[in-house]
Amino acid sequence: MKTFCIKNLFLILFSALIISCEDDNGNIDGQCNAPAQETSDVKWWLLVRPDNNDVGKPGIYLFNETKSTVEYILNIPAKITSPHALDHDGKSLWIGGMGNNSSILELNPEDGSVRSEIKNIRTGGIACDKNNELWFSTYSGIYKITYNGVKLDSFQVSSNVIQDIAINSKKLFYLINGEYDHITEVDKINKQEHSNFNINQTATYAFAIRGENLVVIDDFNDINQFNIETKELVSVDFTNIKGWITAIAPYKENYD
Q1: Largest Cα–Cα distance of the chain, in whole Å?
Q2: Contact in structure between 132 and 143 (CB atoms under 8 Å)
Q3: C-alpha span between 244 and 174 (Å, rounded)
Q4: Rounded to an integer, what distance in angstroms lies between the CA atom of residue 128 and that of residue 134?
Q5: 31, 77, 215, 238: least CB-packed within 10 angstroms?
Q6: Model confidence over 159-214: pLDDT tens digits?
Q7: CB 244: neighbour CB atoms within 10 A?
Q8: Which sign, positive or negative, has the C-alpha torsion 192, 120, 124, 65?
Q9: CB-CB contact of 216 with 175 (8 Å)
């Protein structure tokens, strides 16, 4: 009797295991996998100002690309005139502008409050580096400073006005407007310009890097991603945001 009960218990457990391994069509998968975890949504910080027809709500938008929604909007500090530069280091937002007496401001990404200020810097582009360092561009110059504003490095580029910059671990890239806008790759150590990459856009101001892709906002406020190595268009995603997007920065869960 005892042996019979043990055998029945084993059959019940084995049957339950088979059922749990079946797919939606009743076929046995061959192994029982844990439920797949949801991947993190892709999010962007977008710096938006009204266009030439005063269309668009100004602000720093947290845009969820995965869900095509705006999660919330932060006010642009009054001290930032002609806002053009934005980046996110996982802890703070860094914003700058091309207006007179502009500064680079460090903002709390939750409420937009000012955490610190680097005074008297006009910039069209900001890129956060590791070790509490920033790169920023002013006309044809690119500078590297600490979060406290101490100058670390600088160099001039071959073009006149840089619209935006972005970096990865080894390279710096800058965006220039022209008949066709182009992105130039620069070695961060020796400052040598290696290549130009024309994009089929004009008057693009917003530029970033995410993983292996160069990211630009086109004339329709869509997010265009190009592979860094092949320069091929990888994806186009719509934002449906009205106004003029002058900067884009990847949202980061933490500083890496």
Answers
A1: 92
A2: no
A3: 19
A4: 5
A5: 31
A6: 878 999 999 988 999 999 877 788 999 999 899 998 788 887 777 899 999 999 99
A7: 21
A8: positive
A9: yes
Query: Which 8-state DSSP code applies to residue 18?
Result: H
Q: Are the C-beta atoms of residues 60 and 223 closer than 8 Å to each other?
A: no
pTM confidence score: 0.82
DSSP designation for 36: P
pLDDT in tens, 38-79: 458 999 999 999 998 899 999 999 999 999 999 999 999 999
In 3D, which of 166, 223, 245 has the Cα closest to residue 42? Answer: 223
94/57 Cα distance (integer angstroms) = 20
Strand partners, 105: 95, 117
* Residue (of 133, 151, 132, 150) closest to 141 by Cα position: 151
Q: Both tokens of residue 156? A: 């001039």
